[in-house]
Sequence to fold (269 residues):
Amino acid sequence: MNAPLSTKRVVVGIDGSMEARRAAQWAALEAASQDAVLRLVYVVEPVSDRQEDIEEARRALHKAWNAVADTDIDVKVESEVVSGRPADCLIEESRHAAMVCVGYRGTHDSPDGPRGATAIEVARKAVGTVAIIHRPHAKGAIDRRKWIVVVLDESASATEALKATQNEATWRHAPILVLESWSHSNAAGHPRHPIHSAVARLLRSAGQGGIQVVMLPKPGRLANLLQQSACIDQLFVAPGDHAALVDELTNDQTGRTLRGSDCSLLIIR
Fold:
């Protein structure tokens, strides 16, 4: 039975690839933590052999269901085959989802396009929150002692990014690294910006909740930091209305750095 439309959903783009199945496993735990339905979506290109593609979609969704079942996570699952361009359909799904999850590279990537092209387009253009999942192994739990890193500025979605980071850290029992952009900036800041108060509250309560919190100035180039820390990070969180930051986190260099790591990206909107 399908869940009612008002139910919160975590959507996963499924395309038959191992990367998509790993994304579904990652998203299953995310959905369970939010008491959300896990929605698996397979996109069929409009100009295609319709029946053959439908059969392929069913096989891919069946494998994704099995991959989720292998996690033994208690989560409600639904699936649907939709027609259109993969990135466009997932961007549309983001309008109504708590989160859209995509594997870094899948079978819908164009041979002529860059690795992860679909995931990158969804992350940059989606209306809602997007997670790009990097998983080197299909089996084996992520080491949740690894850091959750959040990049904060004075954009409108920074407070939501910090809130999401705190939620993720709480149920993962993970330490938080806050990279802030205002303490070393030459530009005039906004001392009364809500994000400053939110960070101060987090730092004051850090010891009480058992979650370690460290705050550092944001480096000029995140790529350098990622090269040094991808092996000890499990999630990199950023506000989605900072376009330049999202572009940096989804460019080819960052993709190469995170390839083969357990460090996924979460773009909050």
Summary: Strands lie at 9-14, 37-44, 77-83, 99-103, 130-133, 147-152, 176-180, 213-217, 233-239, 264-268. The mean pLDDT is 88.
